[in-house]
TrEMBL record:
Positions in coiled-coil regions: 173-200
Keywords: Coiled coil
The keyword Coiled coil is annotated on this UniProt entry: yes
Superkingdom of origin: Eukaryota
Domain PRELI/MSF1: 2-170
GO CC term, one of those recorded: mitochondrial intermembrane space
Protein name: PRELI/MSF1 domain-containing protein
Organism: Megalurothrips usitatus (bean blossom thrips)
InterPro entries linked: PRELI/MSF1_dom, Slowmo/Ups
PROSITE patterns assigned to the protein according to its UniProt record, in alphabetical order: PRELI_MSF1 (PS50904)
Amino acid sequence: MGKFYESSTVFHYNWQQVAQAFWKRYPNPHSSHVLTEDTISREVKGNKLFTKRLLTKTNRVPKWGERFINNAKVGIIEESVVDLNNQTLTTYTRNVGYTKVMSVIEKVVYRVSDDNPNWTVAVRSGWIDSHVFGFKHAIQAFGVERFRKNCHQMVMGFNHVLSHLYPKNTSMVTEEKSSVQEAREKLKDAAKRASDLAISKATPLVATCQNN
């Protein structure tokens, strides 16, 4: 049985913006490992858009992995479904090379956030497996860690693309953070005033008790 990894990310952009930006997320400063992307097929059925693409990626191979992999480039099949009715974008990706050494299957669901209708949540699930006798568990552990780091890079890259496509949202997020910070400062001030008031009232009482 392979290793499983799951994470979720909140993008401060609405679902329509994220769904549109998804097709423009390469290139970006955090995706130098993505070499090519080609659309194999695209079809509309009802209110759903089905797309299959082939991406070529590369990842640095650790020294111990060179005995199993002689080329760092690998093909990735990406299948996606855009559901307009439910406002979901679901992607499935899998590598088509070196699958016996390490296979990585990923599913990502982009949907409207339950906390804010103007935000989008991306739930990412990954399954990493290996069939190399004697190295299976070590390769799986390495794969999970590499997958985790790649997820972080993908999020930064996607946010970079989103911020350039929709710059107004960036200022909105900044304003929102400022509002939260301002609210925190007000709470701190209120707490301090309450504390000072309590101390001022307690001081005469303590003095009276000491005199008695």
